[in-house]
Specification:
heterodimer; A: mainly alpha; 3-stranded antiparallel sheet; 3 strands; 61% helix; 10% strand; elongated; B: globular
Chain lengths: 239, 80
């Protein structure tokens, strides 16, 4: 990835998106023999290059726009400190980001806009400053909490359905295995019943975006023994 | 994943601007890229500083249209 080809030649800066993608594919193909780790690092370096290109492009535009107005200590050679405020302004909303990025390389602009569109957070945080860590974390927390609640409601509905169903283990020929399955199911049913009847006794832990574990401690009324039941609910996404 | 990355970046010894650059990078990158970044800095906590230098050097090289620096950065990347 030469600097000239990537960032300076006018013909390159104007090249259509498909050429850029082809270049990326060629880059991929070139690394077929290298290790997986090298390939990952190359992709990461490429992502950083695209970001750096976009960022620097904006800064150069800012500099051109303000030529003659800014004091010398605000120039590039001073580092990037003056850019921080510009960055804050630029990231204040999606529309502004798109507008600001438009004069940069077309492929960067499209990539970044696509990424922004894809990310739900981009919509939710549009009126805020996306780099604001606290806001970002709060948004993620809220998303996670909503997802957890959604999974919990689905799991609870599943538990209630399951409790309506009568398990039939008559198909198991071996009597020992059949009894064992029946006992296991009874224990499971007791746990599910406690969750359905006393949801406040259950604790819900989110494992990932598609998985929760509902845990409950209960006492078997027949034996008086204490039990712990973990109900795992997972959504398997079809590929 | 974003939260895990933010924690790692918080823990790194970065300036306020470097921190802001990574926040912006996280915001703009897709899941695949974020996954790669998280994997790299999890496996090697020192990597974030290397990648930060890589990023800031690239920005500076582009800003100053310094092709020599750019080539040096890309050549150095090949070692990884």
């Amino acid at each position: 990835m030469s600097f000239e080809n990537t960032f300076l030649k006018p013909s390159e800066t104007e090249r259509p998106r498909e050429n850029f993608e082809a270049a990326m594919l060629n880059r991929e193909a070139g690394g077929e023999g290298s290790s997986e780790k090298k390939k990952k690092m190359r992709n990461l370096f490429l992502a950083i290059s695209i970001f750096a290109g976009s960022f620097a492009g904006n800064l150069m535009l800012e500099k051109n726009a303000s030529a003659g107005e800014k004091d010398t200590d605000e120039k590039i050679s001073a580092g990037f400190s003056y850019n921080q405020n510009d960055l804050i302004k630029k990231l204040e909303c999606d529309e502004e980001i798109r507008r600001e990025m438009s004069p940069t390389r077309p492929y960067n602009q499209e990539d970044l806009i696509r990424n922004l569109k894809e990310k739900e957070a981009a919509k939710e945080m549009a009126p805020t400053r996306p780099y604001n860590q606290q806001e970002l974390i709060r948004s993620l927390d809220q998303k996670e909490s909503e997802r957890k609640q959604e999974l919990y409601q689905r799991a609870l509905a599943g538990i209630k359905n399951e409790l309506q169903r009568e398990a039939n283990y008559s198909g198991i020929k071996d009597s020992f295995l059949r009894r064992s399955a029946e006992e296991n199911y009874k224990t499971k049913q007791l746990g599910m019943k406690v969750i359905a009847d006393n949801p406040e006794k259950a604790t819900v832990k989110m494992i990932d975006q598609n998985t929760i574990v509902i845990s409950v401690a209960y006492e078997n009324p027949e034996t008086g023994l204490s039990h712990h039941y973990d109900h795992i609910y997972q959504i398997i996404e079809k590929k | 994943m974003e939260r895990a990355l933010i924690k790692k970046i918080d823990a790194a010894n970065l300036s306020a601007l470097e921190h802001a650059l990574w926040m912006s990078f996280i915001y703009m990158s897709n899941e695949e890229t974020l996954g790669l970044l998280l994997e790299e800095i999890t496996n090697d906590p020192g990597k974030i500083e290397y990648l930060t230098n890589n990023m800031t050097a690239k920005i500076k090289a582009i800003q100053t249209r310094d092709a020599v620096s750019w080539e040096a950065i890309v050549k150095e990347e090949e070692k990884h």
